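#struct-pred

JT: dropping the chains for the assembly here, can someone run the whole complex?
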Amino acid sequence: MQFITFLKKEFAHVLRDRKTLLILFGMPIAQILIFGFALTNEVKNAKIVVIDYAKDVASQKLVTKLEASQYFEIEKTVLGADQIDKSFKEGVIKLALVIPSNFGADLAHQNHAQIQVIADASDPNTANTLTNYISSIVVDYQQELSRSAGISFRIVPETRMLYNPQLLGVYNFVPGVMALVLMLVCVMMTAVSIVREKEMGTMEILLVSPFKPLMVVISKAIPYLLLSLINVAIILLLSVYVLDLPIHGSILLLFVESTLFIITCLTVGIFISVKTASQQVAMLISLMGMMLPTILFSGFMFPIENMPVALQVISNVVPAKWFYIIVKAIMIKGLGFSGIWKETLILSGMTVFLLIVSLRTFKIRLA
Amino acid sequence: MRTIRFLLQKEFKQIFRNKIILAMILMVPSVQLTILPLAADYEIKNINIAVVDNDHSPYSQQLVTNITASGYFRLTGLNSSYKEAFELIDRDEADLILEIPSRFERTVLRENEGKLFIAVNAINGVKANLGAAYLASIVRRFNDDLRLELLPSSGMPQQPLIEVASANWFNILMNYRVFMVPGILAILVTMVGGFLTALNIVKEKEVGTIEQINVTPIRKHHFILGKLIPFWVLGNVVFTIGLLISWLIYGIVPVGSLVVLYSFIGVYLLSVLGLGLLISTICETQQQAMFIMFFFMMVFILLGGLFTSTDSMPAWAKLVSELNPVSYLIDVMRMVILKGSGFADITRHLIIVGIFAIVLNTWAVINYKKTS
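RK: done, full complex below.
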């Protein structure tokens, strides 16, 4: 009975602050939409310059093939090789392709020609990808030339892209952004709302009531759990109907796992609130301290297996990493519980551990 | 002038009094700048591959050896069926499957064409693409070697060959860290400045001390300036620490001049702090301010070109990134630190960020009301 009264108080607190409420719902929607449409680590429309000294049939054909691909935007301005450095410094082009003057002749007479690719490797990822694109276009061109020649002993690889045949970015980013947004929002909300009562002095009043301190904390977390579940529902609706990302697995399972993840994040928030005394510190920890690590260690930006071993170990304590794996498994791969029991167990373990530690250090008396 | 001096005294005292926050402002960026660039590595290596070899011929075995010897792939399963291998993909233990059909060697030799089947986990499209491309190039080289062995050489290559000679300027070793460190430093400086200012005025509102300032003859722009300058100094301190860390730990010394860097950072900080102060004048509670700043930060970071290139985004997102001060800073940091660009190269960036600074700060002054 007491508990319900407390819950009512907390709901009143949350629902009264219209501005925060608006941000709370508006932000995940806006972010899923922005990132669903805009985020891609594909490299498209990269500005490159082609310096064609040959200007013969073969080189023209190659340039046409480059133009036909969506990867490049070929700068028309003709400039000499000596101006490449300047263009790189201004940041106008990412790559320069130099075709030597005897390109067509070499190809016709010696069956062997050379082109030069100069990439602005201050961004190694783009440089690498663009060089790869050019190489594969050149290989295509080569194969076109050799088709007429009749080559023997060919090995032809046939490649199939599983789950995401069009190689869309949303498949990767929607689960990632979902984990990121839920994590940061939940942690921050609980941490701040508890510390706020401490700062304002109202915590004192709650603690002298006959109500158990544990219940005080739990009743604070419940409104946020409900709000976050509504957020999950909105995010899923958006990703299915606006971003065309299908849900292959069970929606019920997805909600159960989301609830678990939200609870984990809420306990992280409780843990922070127990350890801090002012809202500012709580916020700085939950945002400045956690934003970049969550982005990097959840694995949706950079594959975790590429990281040094020590960082791979660190990544294990980031709850968002496990939720990201779970969401991908359920939504995209369509796996059931048997495919994600390990991740579920880890999240549950984290939650229990944090709750116990928080409760043991929770001070019933202030200062 | 005298008013500002007193205001500054007050602000600095408050900053230095709160030891925890001061420590966080200095420690959090330092620790993150030390660790995070190591995590941000896009170079694809250690691709897990599962092989289903139905042929068991010398050729198929040679091919598998070539793949594992390439250094890009890690053989995580030799399975007897595609279904078995697919389970590895489901469990994330394999990224791609290579299936060698039975009688592969015989078909290559007798029918002149043998097929291989590759299936890639494409949830992360870029990784999938690169993995498949690496594997295809290994197969191609294997194929070339095979042909060389089987066919009497004739001096001239049998098929037309266009060699791509590639050169990587500014970063010959293709070191990804050199690219990430300036970008991450840019984000950290932005976060310190943005979050602290966003919380600052609103805290005075929440605690009630703003009333005391409102009843004094302090002018509105004095008040805003008094808030702006301390955090501007702090931002520069954090930036300097960041440069030292990138030099000591990552050995990155700016190729361009420090004067260019610091001038840009100076103007840039004004614009970010202006945004923070503006948010702070709009909100009533620290919670609200934090949420709004959080929203902007997420958009700024993820659309700022730190991790993913802005060129590949759709047109409307490019427009957003035109309005994103962080994308200008990241750009300039990389240009000056890695390529040695000078004032002439970054004029456009400087002017735009300058406009942001003027607009946002003026707005903040106008929006700060001394009467409620």
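JT: nice. Chain A has 15 helices and five strands. Chain A has two domains: 13-39+167-361, 46-147.
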